[in-house]
Design a protein that fits this description.
homotrimer; mainly alpha; 13 helices; globular
């Protein structure tokens, strides 16, 4: 599939350019499908689908995929331990970034004077998130240096072609995906929130999801957790503010004023994620309860108005 | 008292059958008073007392009893450390299970489309919790193997008789307790929520409570915390869904759509519990603040409509 | 400035009397500006400014100052580790005390029967907090014994004079500060909540803030975090209940029934603080995101009614 091809090409790029630069490309390309889908959905006026998809990406990574990784890793290798500084730091950063993302919604819901200014507050919040992303980006590139890469097997031309083709492919697939989404929502009687939170979020994060679970299966829990939680962090720090600002050029603006339950879920999930990762141990039982938690949350959003 | 007798009989059973099987019986019997009280209360139409009692069990264990255990242990032995994998795992599982339990309430309160379907959502949530309990039960039985047991002093017949009698006794006591509860609520002018959250919850968890505090006093903080938090976990994973499904046969159905403050308290308490246990150290000051937190929460529910 | 002078005088006192007694004086004097400002503001009828300032002190310490300390410490010394029992214990106590402080607000917002009794509940809560402070005070004095102090350079008379003068000075400054506050609020079009949460809170905590950041810069992260989080703890355990009870003598009573968003921010900040400190590592990126989080929360309160 497309996602796997991009993954392969990025790995080749990493072997050639060094893992730092490859990290940028991998991050950017891993979020490319999400970005394209969100852009097409915003273009189609589905702002609430995109809002749900942003929260759903973090929920999907930090609950469903983390849970599946714990189940797979735990059933194969028993209790897994992960104590690396990187896994902890990424999970703490994700908690903080997700909590920041949730503030405008709480301000709208619980602070009457701010309710009239939520659009401004949403832009301030997006600006702060983007500034944090730009500030911290260089250090993340450097700190990625100790990942392992196989020697390059593809030529530069092949890698570039694959990546270019993948970009175009992602755009086309995303367009098709979004245009197929609306009829699917109607025929299955699911809500737009459910479509965004579950369907779009899982589709958009396919690469990281598969990679994270595979790493857990290979008993590399530290790396698995870094990849999974890092994907949540990128959604909060990069994808979200970029979409907010890009949407200013569209007729449908994206704001960070979510439906209240979405923001609450986002905050709860971020706290749970940080507690689970700081805990430093995982078992398949923990994974199973995470998956159960995901099922109940997803069910809550099934019904539409 | 009854609770102590059941505890003694279970220990005898453990010495005879092996600690794994004894774990099942101990868990089941430790929750027997709670189960009976809840059933009689549901039969008497007191669904909101039962809802409060479920949250109150988790609150009582993870805040009041944990606090008392910290105070007793801390005053006798100074700062206590607990770093066992088991204590951490149980507290993480409890956090996740309690968070799952709270989702239907938040969906009702903060997501209009789900409000019309909360009964269905409540059943889904109960189903997920029960499935998680059934899935994880076998592994819990096995992992209990390293607890210590004295050699059996009672005969099989005596043990069986005591346990059987205790079951019948628990049923009678619970019946009497519930029938005495309603007049007591009226004469003391307390709310039904307070009765459930404080009175029923403490009465129903007497065994685990005493055991947990005794273990802390004997400077076995890891074991104490496992017992205390495990009791919360059983309420969320086993007692709650069983009561939801059994109540379908009654005229008063139990749902997991709690009053909002109860669900919020449940979530906060679960998060605090996990943070405190992951912290890995306890002092009597921490215990004192936990007890103070319990007093303030209990006070909030004193007033009825 | 005044704050620095008090700090110097306290250090001299510590060198003379022993660090235990100095701890009391330092705590009391460190909170003196806050106390005076709050008293003058209550006298001027600005109860909502004082409420916001209490939450703002905890927010300022546990988010802004902790964030700045992480940034300064991280940029100078790379990843900093802090694993002392004291830092963890103080952060856990702060979490519990702040959660207790938030209960009356949640009871008002989410539990109709309690809404009519919030004043009583607020007094119960303040009583519990004050009792906890009195109970735990002696142990805190003793455990401060291992801080380092330079030998005394000032005479007893000089120290006493400086401290006495500082007290009078703090009173005058606070009076001037509060009387200048109301016109400033009007001319800058900021809300009273913003004035309390940001301006008053930062002004009132100047001493601890500077000390905490300096300690982080000198690569003493454990001590820095103790000082910073301890300041939050004193606000919750000592300053808040004292102000509630003292305000009973005023025409404007201070209650612990905050605007909902303030209580929510208090709870979230306390949870984040505990997770971050239990994490045991800090980087400048974490600090930057903390500062960003502070900016977004402060922005939410900018607009007034």
């Amino acid at each position: 599939m497309l996602a796997r091809l991009v993954g392969g090409a990025t790995e080749q790029l990493g072997a050639r350019l060094g893992s730092g630069a490859a990290g940028v490309v991998q991050s950017a390309l891993g979020n490319l499908p999400e970005l394209f889908i969100a852009l097409f959905a915003l273009h189609a006026g589905l702002a609430n689908v995109v809002q749900a998809a942003l929260v759903g990406s973090i929920l999907g990574n930090s609950v469903l995929v983390l849970g599946l990784a714990f189940v797979v890793g735990g059933l194969r290798h028993g209790m897994q331990r992960f104590d690396s500084d990187r896994a902890r730091m990424v999970s703490t950063l994700t908690l903080l970034a997700a909590a920041t993302m949730a503030v405008p919604t709480f301000a709208r819901a619980y602070h009457a004077p701010a309710a009239a200014h939520t659009h401004t507050l949403s832009l301030i919040c997006a600006g702060v998130l983007l500034a944090l992303f730009v500030l911290t980006l260089p250090s993340f590139l450097r700190s990625r240096g100790n990942e392992e890469h196989a020697p390059p097997r593809w030529s530069v031309a092949l890698t570039a072609t694959v990546l270019g083709a993948a970009g175009v492919g992602a755009a086309f697939t995303s367009d098709w995906f979004v245009s197929a989404l609306t009829p699917a929502i109607h025929s299955l009687h699911m809500s737009q929130e459910f479509a965004g939170l579950v369907i779009v979020a899982i589709a958009g994060n396919a690469v990281e999801n598969v990679v994270g679970i595979q790493l857990a299966a290979r008993n590399r829990p530290d790396f698995a957790i870094s990849v999974i939680v890092n994907s949540s962090l990128q959604v909060a720090l990069a994808l979200t503010p970029v979409l907010v600002f890009v949407s200013l050029a569209f007729s449908t603006h994206l704001t960070l004023v979510f439906p209240t339950l979405l923001a609450l879920v986002l905050l709860i999930v971020a706290i749970l994620g940080a507690v689970i990762v700081n805990d430093g141990r995982s078992t398949w039982q923990e994974g199973a309860v995470l998956v159960g938690f995901y099922v109940v949350i997803a069910s809550s959003f099934w019904w539409g108005t």
